[in-house]
Design a protein that fits this description.
The protein is an alpha+beta fold. It has one domain: Ubiquitin-like (UB roll). Helix content is about 20%, strand content about 25%. The protein contains two helices and five strands, in the order E-H-E-H-E-E-E. Strands 2-1-5-3-4 form a five-stranded mixed beta sheet. The chain is globular, with a radius of gyration of 15 Å. The relative contact order is 0.24.
Length: about 90
Amino acid sequence: MEKNKFDDRMNPMKITVRVYGRYKDITGKDRVQLDVTEGNTLQDVINAFVKQYPALQKDKNRIMVTKNKMFASFDTIVTQEDEITLSPPVVSGG
């Protein structure tokens, strides 16, 4: 049987991401929809978020992210059913 040339292509998906703090102020929403591809990681979600909202570029490597209410590393795989949240980095004064 001949292999379909599209078998290796990942499926695109839309995910809804909750945003907090000044991210909510910048986006004007408490939830944003992002286009990612099946098999993408939280880093890919962050990249899509920053691409949609370039003002957040300086936070790109410091965004606090949760998947299903648990802090997760940027290399964690996401699915369309996951609950993803993005929050600004926490800073403290001295």
